[in-house]
Every structure is written in C-alpha cells, then in structure tokens.
Amino acid sequence: MDEKALLDHQFVVAAYAVTWAVQLGYVAWLAFKWRAQKRAAARMGREAR
Amino acid sequence: MKKAAIGLYIIFTIALMVWGYYQAIYVAPTDAMQGELFRIIFYHVPSASVAFVFFAISLAGSICYLAFRRNRAGWAQISDAWALAGAEVGVVFCTVVLLTGPLWGRRAWGIWWTWDARLTTTLVLWLIYVSYLLLRRFAAGPQVQTLAAVLGIFGALDVPIVYMSNRWWRTQHPAPVFGGGEGSGMDPSMLPAFFWNMGAWFAWGILILVLRYHVERQHQQFAAQEAQDALEA
C-alpha cells in the first residue's frame, strides 16, 4: 500500500470509529437512563405499598 | 412473542450492519478520483438521510402534540414522546455527519471546515435541535412541551434548506450524488454497498428511535404517577 492509500485508509478508519463511538456511546447512555428509571419506579412502587 | 420479535429485529439489524461494513470495505471498488477515502460516503450519507427522516418524525410529533394537547391528552403525550425521540436520535446521527464530514474534508480538500452553505446550514440544524434538547432538559413548568413543539417545528424548516443548499448555492461541499442533475450519480458497482449501508443505518436508527420512545413513555408514566402521589399526599 502506498503512502497516499495508507493515509486515506487511516481517515476512513477514523471516520468509522468516530461513528461507532457516537452511536454506541448514545445507546449506553440510553440503557443507563432506562435502568435508572426502572429502579426509581420500582422504589416508588415499594414506598407506595 | 413481543420479546422474540424484538430479539429477531436486533439480530437482523446487527447482521445488516456487519454485511454493510463488509460491502463498504471489501466489496465496493476504490473510487477513481478519491481512492480509499471515498468509503466514508457509506457512513456519512446514510447518517445524514436518517437524521433528516428523524427530524421529520420530530416535526410530525410536534405538530400532533400542538393539535391534541387540549382535547386528547393521551395522544398528545404519545406525540410528544415521538417528537423528543426523533429530535434526540436525529441529533446523534447529525453529530456523526458533522464529525465524519470534516474528516473527509481534511483529506480531500486540505481543510477541516469551511463556512459554505451546506456545512453551515447543517451546523445550524444541529444547534437548533441541541437547543431543543437543552430546553427539554433544563426548563420546567407546564409550557415546556408546547415551547419545545414550536421550536421543533421551526427547527425542521432548516432540513429542506440543508438538503437544497448545494443545489441553490455554489459550495465547497460536492454536488449531490443523487438527484443532482446531469453528471451526478454513482458508479453502478458502488450502488449495492451504498444501499446495503443505507438499509443498515435505517434499521439501526429505527431500533434506537423505538428504544428512546419507550424510555420517554416510561418517564411520562413515572412523572404522572409522581404528580398523582403528590396530590394525594
């Protein structure tokens, strides 16, 4: 692989990595929020009883 | 049954993402002009398309919320949850566009950013929807949903401007690949990779959109229950 192709490849890898970092970061945040909400709802249900 | 359907959809989406990646990296030919760098298109353009569609969902949700808020409270809450989910997941995809674009631009044009019409209108779109999310996060009171719906409607007006920007004005950003008139288009050998990735990103987007909607509905029910308990106390 020549130098130009190698540099192009590195930019492609960076773009794909950034995409997955954003997407998976968001999904992780969403899952965390969902779990916290479920716990809060369960706690409220126990207090009501 | 419902859990099995969700599980199957998740497996389908992951398989599509892996297949799309394989097509983008190993099957699509190297571009004659841009070489390997062109492969960024398989993530950049589908992300922009998904963002536009989700902002349109947010627009529809905002309009429905304003229409139903006085006489159909249940429908209004469902509409509001779709409006929020569309805006938030749209921002995620728009963020990807704003990060992958400069990476492509740095290598192709030698600059990370330029204030041309396409880039600037996309940044403005992102800023409008980030302000929408900040409004929902930090403002309090009974009018927050209404204010957010109005902002969501005005924010969506920027979507057609972004889409048309490189047709209306001369931009550093390349002319449209599809629907750009004479001379536009993609080599047929690249089309399968493009459409597989388009399908994969839409499948992924729908998955997280529905998850976000579900989380918001749960939040609404939780908030309603809290309000009810406070009234009874």
What is the compact description of this entry?
The complex is a heterodimer of chains A (49) and B (233). Chain A is an all-alpha fold.
Describe this structure in words.
The complex is a heterodimer of chains A (49) and B (233). Chain A is mainly alpha-helical and 49 residues long. Chain A has one helix at residues 3-48. Chain A is rod-shaped. By secondary structure, chain B is mainly α. Chain B has 7 helices and no strands. Chain B has one domain (2-28, 40-176, 189-232). The A-B interface holds A 4-5, 7-9, 11-12, 14-16, 18-19, 22-23, 26-27, 30, 33-34, 37-38, 40-41, 44, 48 and B 21, 34-37, 39-40, 43-44, 47, 89, 92, 95-96, 99-100, 103-104, 106-107, 204, 208, 211-212, 214-215, 218-219, 222, 225-226, 229.
Which percent range describes the beta-strand content of chain A? under 5%
Domain count of chain B: the total is 1
The coarse silhouette of chain B is globular
Gross morphology of chain A: rod-shaped
Which percent range fits the helix content of chain B? over 70%
Beta-strand residue fraction of chain B: under 5%
* Helix/strand order of chain B: HHHHHHH
Mean pLDDT score of chain A: 88
The overall pLDDT of chain B, averaged over residues, is 90
| Through-space gap between termini of chain A | 68 Å
Helix run count of chain A? 1
- CA radius of gyration of chain A is 21 Å
Structural class of chain A: mainly alpha
Report the count of strand segments of chain A.
0
Cα end-to-end separation of chain B: 39 Å
Present the secondary structure layout.
The complex is a heterodimer of chains A (49) and B (233).
Chain A (H helix, E strand, L loop, with lengths): L2 H46 L1
Chain B lengths: L1 H26 L13 H28 L4 H36 L8 H22 L5 H13 L1 H11 L22 H42 L1
Helix pairs in contact in B: 1-7, 2-3, 2-5, 2-7, 3-4, 3-7, 4-5, 4-6
